[in-house]
Design brief:
Helices cover 34% and strands 15% of the residues. By secondary structure, it is of the alpha/beta class. The chain has a 4-stranded antiparallel β-sheet, with no helix packed on it. A two-stranded parallel ribbon has the order 5-6.
């Protein structure tokens, strides 16, 4: 165990040293000596027999990132350390991530299940992450996380017309504003329901005869 931790620490240190050498990185953090296709957006590509996440400028990218850095649980920190200034908190958080050697945020500025109490200004978080130009993903909430379900609430019938409309509306809400943003690494819809897959399966099997599912 100690040997594995030591190896991981060595790898992290080596990557951090490399990441500080601006001459070897493009503006997105990609290695300039790992050359792929320049498409203007993050994409996957096989280079030299290995699959890479490739930056918009066409270079292999090794992401070292955090998940869910913006949550409603930080309200106390924002209130007392940043005098209630969410924008200062968001920008300082990105600054500190970079100082620690992180070069991206895998989960996006926020995810709905971690901001469900209404504290985080979602539009502000999205704007700050665009302006700070840090590679990140965008959460498109298509299935509620287990913690978001209200007492007695079940997951949607994913085969229904209503759910299809819900998906169209949420994709338009979260994807369309970011379609030309080169700093977006991709989109994800969350995995919370799959943590209780048995419950979801039982809910589906218990639907009334003739239901879409």
């Amino acid at each position: 165990m100690k040997k594995n931790i030591a190896r991981l620490a060595s790898i992290m240190l080596a990557l951090q040293v490399v990441s500080t050498d601006a001459a070897k990185l493009d503006r997105f953090g990609g290695f300039t000596d790992v050359k792929g296709e320049k498409t203007g957006f993050f994409h996957t590509q096989k280079i030299g027999g290995r699959w890479w996440l490739v930056t918009p400028d066409g270079h292999g990218f090794f992401g070292i990132g955090l998940s869910h850095p913006v949550t409603g649980f930080s309200q106390g920190t924002v209130t007392f350390s940043y005098k209630g200034n969410q924008e200062a908190w968001l920008r300082d958080g990105i600054k500190k991530m970079r100082e620690l050697g992180y070069n991206c945020v895998w989960s996006g500025p926020y995810s709905t299940e971690r901001t469900r109490f209404g504290f985080v200004d979602h539009l502000l978080a999205e704007r700050v992450y665009r302006e700070e130009k840090i590679p990140h993903a965008i959460h498109v909430p298509l299935i509620k996380h287990q913690v978001e379900l209200k007492p007695g609430e079940t997951r949607p019938d994913v085969f229904s017309d209503e759910y299809a409309q819900f998906v169209r509306e949420n994709v338009a809400r979260y994807v369309t504003p970011n379609k030309d943003n080169p700093w977006i690494m991709g989109y994800y819809y969350g995995f919370g329901s799959f943590m209780r897959s048995g419950l979801w399966l039982n809910e589906t099997l218990n639907r009334k005869p003739g239901s879409a599912g």
